[in-house]
Amino acid sequence: IAHGKVERAPAWWVGARGALLQHAQAGTPRYVYDLATVRERARGLLAVPAIDRCFYAIKANPNAAVLRAIVGEGFGLECVSQAELDHVFATVPNLSPQRVLFTPSFAPRREYEAAFARGVTVTLDNVEALQRWPEVFRDRTLWLRLDLGHGEGHHEKVKTGGVAAKFGLPVARFDAFLAEARKLNVRISGLHAHLGSGIDDPRHWRGVYAELAGLADSVGTIETIDIGGGLPIPYTPDAQPFDLAAWRDGLDEIKAAYPRYGLVIEPGRYLVAESGVLLLGVTQVVEKDGVRRVGGDAGMNALMRPAMYEAYHGIHNLSRLDDGAGVAFDVVGPICESGDVLGRSRLLPAATSEGDVLLVADAGAYGMAMANTYNLRALPAEDVIG
Ligand code: LLP
């Protein structure tokens, strides 16, 4: 099946400009999430026939209204800490533990105990935990996270496979893990791999399923294969939207080859990134040595992604959207670090000035979730619309 170029629809926030400017009047910095966009992305994934169950990786954006919208569409939730577990059960009414995964990394013993007490599905990724805490795991049913030996993703820091990564049991230790599990009467009912975040190649996930299914056949107790998250979104103006049709076809094919296993995904970014904008108030506009800088009332404290991964986010002057954008500005924040830059050489209206509202696009994933209070700056506010 050939897949052509997918047209990008205009972002939701273009039409919601008036409402967003009103939200900004209540104070900036402020994240605003459009729940209609979240629901639409969730439905797109739920409609893929090969997928049996979808879990949302709440680390991307644990906002309560966002969680309820996603669960309302039929998603389960993937948590990585006891606080995330407590949060989802407190936030989503009548949440069944069967709809919750616990996939922590180097978590303390008590968090595994708490997860078992809640009755959620626990994924383990090392043999040492079984050896050290046999009484925690004895007679349990677990999923096993494997390191398939390579990482993928938009930046080195988000690759979660391969020797440099702390995640996952190397495939070479698979048999040793199974032997240890047998000693404790631990049943392995699921295999999991998540190789990274922001993976552009739609064939990646079918490959992961094939590798895990090949291993699962030898175990005999595997019911579920979890191929992780990592679906990308188009951040830059020239980026193509993720080819969901090619992704779906790949999963259909591989599911037909290994029909025995329930296929699970656990995306975060794909559901929420495009739903969120960060609104900033312009503080100062300064020219220094030929570089024009526009300052927002938050920077890397509200949105770490540019500083941490050199990530690109579109930046627009919401107050002067119709002015056209002709002058290159570096968009910076108020934090005392030279890395506090949200975007370099961005074209913005020449008249950009104090009090204007800047909009940082595609900030719904790993934005507020990673915000901090460095320099004792307050955390951004959050609103939802839609
Ligand atoms: N499952 C596991 C086990 C994960 O570790 C993650 C993300 C996901 C699912 C969801 O991945 P997603 O679908 O969102 O790519 N802060 C970085 C991304 C870190 C991702 C961490 N793990 C960023 O802003 O790009």
Automatic annotation (TrEMBL):
Residues with PTM N6-(pyridoxal phosphate)lysine: K59
Top-level taxonomic group: Bacteria
Active site residues of this protein: C336
Protein family per UniProt: Belongs to the Orn/Lys/Arg decarboxylase class-II family.
Full protein name: aspartate kinase
